[in-house]
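lol so apparently i was supposed to do this last week
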Amino acid sequence: VAARPDHAELRRIMEFIVGQPISDRYVPLLEEELAVEGRDLRAPEWDAGSLAPDRPMRVVVIGAGMSGIAAGHRLGQAGVDYVVYDKNDDVGGTWFENDYPGCRVDVQNHMYSYSFAQRHDWPQYFSDRHVLVDYFRRVAEDTGVLANVVLRTEVASCTWHHDEDRWELVVRAGGVERTEWADAVVSAVGQLNRPRFPDINGRDDFAGPSFHSGAWDHDVELAGKRVVVIGTGASACQFVPIVARDASELTVLQRTAPWLIPAERIHSDVADGFAWLLGRAPFYAQWYRFWLFWRGAEGMLPAATVDPEYPPTERAVSARNDEMRALLTDYLRVMAGGDDELFEQLLPDYPPLSKRFVLDNGVWPATMRQEHVSLVSTGIERIEADGVRTDDGVLHEADVIIYGTGFRAADFLVPMQVTGRDGVDLHERWGGDARAYLGIVAPSFPNLFFLYGPNTNIVVNGSIIYFSECEVHYVVESIRMLLEQDVRSMECRPDVHDAYNERIDAANRLRAWGFSSVSSWYKNTTGRTAQNWPFSVLEYWEQTRRPDPDDFVLR
Ligand code: NAP
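anyway here it is w/ NAP bound
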């Protein structure tokens, strides 16, 4: 058996694989991600039973999606008593709920997967949601989390009792409410699952069936129907080409054109030879994942960075961003196939990366070029019994309307009622502008942790699973701090929270999404970028290694 490489050797191999030097700062993170030889370096190195045998520590995790499963797994490894509640009929969160035709991940699967549950046999580079739901269910099963998941159960409210240093939860199942207690609560409710319907006059006047992409009505037959779709975001761009196969007429109402990024393999099966390598060549799959992770670590962040000297405009925020615009514009020109009117419609009028791009292998423009498909960029005046009337007075007749209008992403934790210390209501405190320290903790809400909370979305680099793993690590280390220091509660200091948020806001203003005035779900109703993490994936990893006791009031 060959000797295990030491750190220096491992680093040399890493540099060989990525073809460039790797800085000292990155190496420990990369070793963790690599999990070479299946060694899970993120597993907690402590155990609640040994650390504080007499101390009750019951954790309620809300949500059994990607983040909740990771939280359950790590809490279980640390021997912490936990339960995961989920309102749905199965685990998988957004991947379970979004079952519209064509739904698939647009981050490469060999990276969009847990570091502790790497899989080499993904059938496609970007798998469809069935494969993902199966993956999450399998991980939940294999890790033992599933045994602690209680489905069809919703947490209606959480109330902090300062005298007891515990949360009181109202839990609803089968129409019956009950009360229970938790020493800590982890919210893993996700961002992209509560449908947002647009505020368009006459929405209820439509005579036919209508539904949202996030709650697809599979009973509605689309074959031979006139279908109107509102929205051209990532969801619509996936289901519209499929709907076009069935509909007799398809009208797509576009308010803002998405930037398309060419991705030839978005629908492709993993090639046989490559699948062989991944499955048979020793460690090939791990190094492939590693390479994807490295390439995506900074990803397109440099092209999203505002150069104040450039000067930035609503066209481009830097020379690099402008180069990207030129490349993507060329792609659209080619894809429009000589149809100048279509090209003008497909061409966005804001800097690339200011809002979510769409990966495309040519299918979106090709769909728009079909005879029975119309892309309409005129504003919507109102919805009527027979269809949608646009500002130019034209009625786009419809048998079915499909809303691809996104999610209430900025309404974190809605509709749960959360009451913290001194009766502070979380939603009143936020006033539509959710903030947290590291996206995880907030003042007045002791022992409450958010996963995929405010400003933890990475949009041009990395995988959101990696981010959740960092958050989970911080949460588990926080529980450890409570047990180790024998304190009952930890509450983030307001000054720490505020200074952090100022830093986040300043950095987001220097990214394309913060600079541009284009509408996007990255921003909340106040106009603040409430979703995005503006820094590198390394910085988040470094900041979530362990909680700093000085950041908290401990009691
Ligand atoms: P979205 O990006 O928020 O897109 C919503 C669309 O509806 C936009 O085109 C928006 O136009 C339009 N819209 C909203 N209100 C409107 C109104 N009143 N009138 C006309 N148009 C209106 O939502 P999404 O497409 O569901 O995607 C949300 C996010 O989910 C994605 O960005 C992505 O992060 C994630 N997602 C991921 C995948 C994947 O990984 N494969 C797939 C689907 C979704 P404006 O642009 O003008 O606001």
